[in-house]
Amino acid sequence: MPSGCPASTSAGKWTSPPTDERIEHVEATMAEMDERIGQTVAAITELQTHIAEVGYVQERAQQTAAAVANLQQQRPPAQVPSGPSRQHQDVEMAAASRQLRKMETKPPTFEGDIDGVKLNSFIFH
Description:
Layout: E1 8-10, E2 13-15, H1 19-74, E3 90-92, E4 99-101, E5 113-114, E6 117-118
Antiparallel strand pairs: 1-2, 3-4, 5-6
């Protein structure tokens, strides 16, 4: 006897439920299976949509990587100057045998006022 089917005993013998009850049980089982199949179809459809989205993103990533590689091949590598920087390069003087080195300078700071105007701006500090 399948599980879920109601059965009764009479004097130690198993008796089948009436035919109408069995038909109702089969119909209920079929309705439940139909609902679960519908849910499965919906889940598979959603999964296929997600797979398509992932494929699109993967394709765009490959296109972007190819575009970046193409740009890198077109652009020559930057030339890095070798040797001392121009700021610290020694300068030869024609009139003397000494060599002077360029030094970095800072912009002047203004203390007080200029032409009677007090300069409080951060630019002048």
